[in-house]
Amino acid sequence: MSEPVNAGLSRTATGSRADAGALCDVAGLKVGHFTHPSVPTGCSVVLCESGATAGVDVRGAAPGTRDLDLLRPENTVQQVHAILLTGGSAFGLAAADGVMRWLAERGHGFAVGQVRVPIVPAAVLFDLWRHDASTAPDADAGRAACEAASAAERSRGRVGAGAGATVGKLLGVERAMPGGLGMASVRIGGMTLSAMVAVNAVGDVVDPHGGEVIAGSRGADGRPRSTVQALLDGERPGGALQGSATTIGVIATDARLTKAQATKLAQIAHDGLARAIHPVHTVMDGDVMFALATGAADVDGDMTLLGAVAAEVVARAIVDAVSAMPIQDGCRRGSPRATT
């Protein structure tokens, strides 16, 4: 039987939404964020300094990534030391350099002779229509996220990789609403399963159970309406650029998994995107989901159980990412960072 870990959806007065659970409910992980002080962008790092088995699955048609091939089950490297989620499009991949340097200075990495090479796969989302390449996350931003990392980190909303995220852009970016970064966690069968997702979709975020639009393209009254229904009613896309969106995230467990099992968990996690984002995996999105297994619970992962609830946890994290966003809040270029 599933035991929700603070699985509700109400937001606290401070905006921490601790009741929804967090990625660090999985033992062995730390999360840290860098949020730019003057423009809406940033990066988020998931540290697993002692190593964690990882997998990945890419479903969007416009991804921006780094070091994904080594996660293929047949390849040599068995564990990673961090995962980076970042804004800034491909420019933001430079933040991974800072994460690598930070880990290397502390002796973490894949041993190659006398050298240790930290393994830091990364994925980006596009928020450059809200700032420019000069303010994209860089190596210093990645290092700052590592310095801030903690096993107690539970911030969500417009923070880190979610700082410049928006949703509902398919009918025009001027009708978009803020996205953000969300988390959720459950306990099931003696295992913890958690997710953290930066939601920057071209589509709308919808209630995965009722189907109503929670955040998305705004109508004339300023409230969200269904993009898919608008298209069916004859509206046309509003000129969103290819690669101008993307939802990226991490699903993690404290059970032991093989690389092949972690890859399968990442694949199943995309079902959560499909439940909570409409439309999803478009030619304008570079959707990527990573999976991590720390083994801290000292149990072999039951893929039947984990696979059955993975999409639900990811969908909850997506809803969590937008639950604090004001309906009337616009998404102007260079708008100040929100404190959620």
Radius of gyration over alpha carbons?
Answer: 18 Å
Give the amount of beta strand, in percent. Answer: 25-35%
Average of per-residue pLDDT values: 89
Order of helices and strands: EEEEEHEEEHEEEEEEHEHEEH
CA-CA gap between termini: 33 Å
Please characterize this protein's 3D structure.
- By secondary structure, the protein is α+β, with helices and mostly antiparallel strands.
- It has one domain: L-amino peptidase D-ALA esterase/amidase (4-Layer Sandwich).
- 19% of the residues lie in helices and 25% in strands.
- The protein contains five helices and 17 strands.
- It has helices at 95-105, 139-148, 227-232, 259-276, 303-322; strands spanning 3-4, 30-35, 42-58, 65-66, 79-86, 110-112, 115-117, 122-124, 166-167, 177-178, 180-188, 191-199, 204-206, 213-215, 248-253, 277-278, 288-293.
- The strands form four sheets. Strands 1, 2, 3, 4, 5, 8, 11, 12, 15 and 17 form a ten-stranded mixed β-sheet that branches. Strands 14-13-16 form a three-stranded antiparallel β-sheet.
- A hairpin with a 6-residue loop joins strand 2 (30-35) and strand 3 (42-58).
- Helix 1 (95-105) crosses helix 2.
- The two termini are 33 Å apart.
What's the structural blueprint in terms of helices and strands?
Blueprint: E1 3-4, E2 30-35, E3 42-58, E4 65-66, E5 79-86, H1 95-105, E6 110-112, E7 115-117, E8 122-124, H2 139-148, E9 166-167, E10 177-178, E11 180-188, E12 191-199, E13 204-206, E14 213-215, H3 227-232, E15 248-253, H4 259-276, E16 277-278, E17 288-293, H5 303-322
Parallel strand pairs: 5-8, 15-17
Antiparallel strand pairs: 1-11, 2-3, 3-5, 3-17, 4-8, 6-7, 9-10, 11-12, 12-15, 13-14, 13-16
